[in-house]
Specification:
Elements lengths: L2 H27 L3 H9 L5 H16 L3 H4 L5 H24 L2 H21 L9 H18 L3 H9 L5 H25 L5 H9 L1 H14 L5 H26 L2
Helix pairs in contact: 1-2, 1-11, 2-3, 2-12, 3-9, 3-10, 5-7, 5-9, 6-8, 6-12, 7-8, 8-9
C-alpha cells in the first residue's frame, strides 16, 4: 500500500470514528451530530467536502426517530423556525460554495466555540419567544447551516433556554434538523456541491452512523442528560480550538 493510499485510509477511518461518536451524541440528545462530526472532520477535510455528506447522514439519522416523537414536537415554533431557515440557507450555501477554505474553517471554529460557550452558560427564558424572535432564530440557523453545516446552535439555544422541557425540545430539534438539512441539500445541489463522491462518502459512513444513533437512543432514558450535555460541549470547545489552530497554521 503506497503512502497516498495509506493516508486516504487513515483519513476515512478517523472520519468514521468521528461520525460514530457524533451519532451517539445525536441519538442521545437529539442534537450535536453536525456540530461534532463537521468540526472534527474539518481537521482533515475542507468544509465544502465534508458538509454535503454530513447533511445526508443527518437526514438519515433523523428519519427513524421521528415517528416516535411526533406528538412531542412544538409545531408552531417549528413552522416559524423553518420559514426563517428558508430565508437564511441560500446565503450560507453561497458562502460555502465560493469562499476560500481557510477563512471558512476559521469562521467555523469561531462559530462553534462561541456557540458552545453560550450553550454552557445555560440561558433561560420564562416563556416561549414570540414569532419575530423565532423567525430570526431560524434565519440565523439557516445561514449557519448553509455556510458550515451547523445550524444547530441558534435553535438549540432557543429550545434549551425555553420552558419547553427536555423531551419536547429534543423532539422539536430532531424534526427541525431533518427539515433544515433537506433545504440545505437542495441548495447545495443547486450550487454544484453534491457529486458522486458525496454519495460515496455518505455510504461509507452509514454503518458507524446507524450504530451510533442506536446506541445513543438506547441510552437516552438511562443516563444523566445534563452530564452528557456538559461533556459534549467541552468536546466541541476543544475541537473548535484545534480546528482554528490548524487553519491559522495554513495561513503561514
Amino acid at each position: 500500500m503506497n503512502s497516498a493510499l495509506s493516508s486516504l485510509v487513515a483519513i476515512y477511518l478517523y472520519a468514521a470514528a468521528c461520525v460514530f461518536v457524533a451519532a451517539v451524541v445525536r441519538g442521545y440528545s437529539g442534537f450535536g451530530f453536525s456540530l461534532l462530526s463537521i468540526t472534527a472532520i474539518s481537521l482533515v477535510m475542507p468544509p465544502a467536502t465534508a458538509v454535503p455528506s454530513i447533511f445526508l447522514l443527518e437526514v438519515l439519522a433523523g428519519l427513524p426517530l421521528l415517528p416516535g416523537l411526533w406528538r412531542l414536537i412544538h409545531w408552531r415554533e417549528l413552522f416559524a423556525l423553518f420559514c426563517g431557515a428558508l430565508v437564511g440557507t441560500p446565503f450560507g450555501v453561497y458562502a460555502l460554495a465560493h469562499a476560500p477554505a481557510v477563512p471558512m474553517t476559521l469562521a467555523l471554529a469561531a462559530f462553534v466555540f462561541v456557540s458552545a460557550v453560550l450553550l454552557a452558560r445555560g440561558l433561560r427564558w420564562q416563556r416561549m419567544p414570540g414569532p419575530a424572535v423565532t423567525f430570526a432564530t431560524g434565519t440565523a440557523s439557516g445561514l449557519a447551516n448553509g455556510a458550515f453545516g451547523m445550524g444547530g446552535p441558534p435553535v438549540i439555544l432557543f429550545f434549551f433556554s425555553s420552558p419547553a422541557g427536555v423531551e419536547a425540545g429534543r423532539a422539536s430539534l430532531i424534526a427541525y434538523f431533518l427539515l433544515s438539512d433537506l433545504i440545505g441539500l437542495a441548495w447545495q445541489g443547486w450550487n454544484g456541491l453534491i457529486a458522486t463522491a458525496t454519495l460515496t462518502r455518505a455510504a461509507l459512513f452509514l454503518p458507524p452512523l446507524a450504530a451510533g444513533v442506536w446506541l445513543g437512543n438506547h441510552r437516552f432514558k438511562r443516563t444523566d442528560s445534563a452530564a452528557a450535555r456538559r461533556w459534549a460541549l467541552r468536546l466541541l470547545m476543544l475541537l473548535a480550538l484545534l480546528t482554528g489552530a490548524r487553519a491559522l497554521s495554513q495561513l503561514y
